[in-house]
Write a structure and sequence with these properties.
The complex is a heterodimer of chains A (138) and B (83). Chain A has 138 residues and is of the alpha+beta class. Chain A has helices spanning 13-26, 31-52, 106-114; strands spanning 2-7, 59-67, 72-79, 117-123, 126-134. Chain A is built from 3 helices and 5 strands. In chain A, helix 1 (13-26) runs antiparallel to helix 2 and helix 2 (31-52) runs antiparallel to helix 3. Chain B is built from 3 helices and 3 strands; from the N terminus they run H-E-H-E-H-E. The chains are: A alpha+beta (138), B alpha/beta (83).
Chain lengths: 138, 83
């Protein structure tokens, strides 16, 4: 298991993605799956950057581990900001016309759609969100 | 098109609203689009629908998947790569 502790800011997103991609590349993750994981990692990390400590800046821990055969990756985000369960948010209605569509809620929706499993828990003052994704193409 | 790069596109698109009648966004070299990118596309679509419209061209299969999941493929005027 590898861990990165980093200030949760938009500016640090490329560093987080590089950290994750390095592990995925070692596991020979197909590009298509890597792109889906990168989008999910971005949505979760940026959520923490924007909301967890607002207006202060705090840190987030990102853990990544590739396990199993066939391999799958677990990516865990831990912050000690305000308790916030992004999964509690209602999914956007993707069938509405452009006029009716609201801007927002799409990020976490894409995470749910693209990952095999997404879990949230609040434990001892920490938000803990875990993404799970199989690394083989389906 | 992610959180860090989308602001550049947003600035560019906003600057062109006044002077253009129709807007074409070329996605040929775009590898992925996050919700930040989707937001700017949706708002550009809303502004341009009062004029000549927004067209997104050169869209790869991977990006098309994102548009399909989010329902954007039924909203936006999309041309796939090689079309």
């Amino acid at each position: 298991m590898k861990e990165l502790e980093i200030e949760a800011t938009d500016k640090n997103l490329p560093k987080v993605l590089a950290f994750i991609d390095e592990e995925l590349e070692k596991a020979q993750c197909p590009m298509r799956v890597q792109v889906q994981i990168d989008v999910a990692v971005e949505e979760i990390f940026v959520n923490i950057a924007h909301y967890a400590y607002n207006p202060e800046i705090g840190t987030a821990k990102v853990r990544v581990e590739v396990l199993g055969d066939p391999p799958s990756v677990d990516i865990t985000f831990i912050d000690n900001g305000v308790p916030y369960d992004p999964l509690a948010k209602e999914d956007p209605n993707v069938k509405l016309s452009a006029k009716e569509r609201k801007i927002g809620g799409l990020g976490i929706f894409m995470v749910k759609k693209n990952m095999d499993d997404v879990r949230y828990e609040y434990l001892d003052g920490h938000n803990i969100l875990t993404l799970k994704k199989g690394l083989l193409l389906k | 098109m992610d959180t860090t790069t989308t602001p550049m596109l947003e600035t560019e698109i906003r600057a062109s609203y006044d002077e253009c009648n129709a807007l074409v966004v070329d996605f040929t070299d775009v590898k992925y689009v996050s919700s930040a990118g989707l937001r700017i596309l949706l708002s550009a679509h809303k502004v341009m629908s009062k004029k000549g419209g927004l067209r997104v061209t050169g869209v790869s299969d991977e990006i098309m998947e994102v548009f399909d999941i989010t329902g954007f493929s039924t909203i936006l005027n999309i041309e796939k790569k090689g079309a």
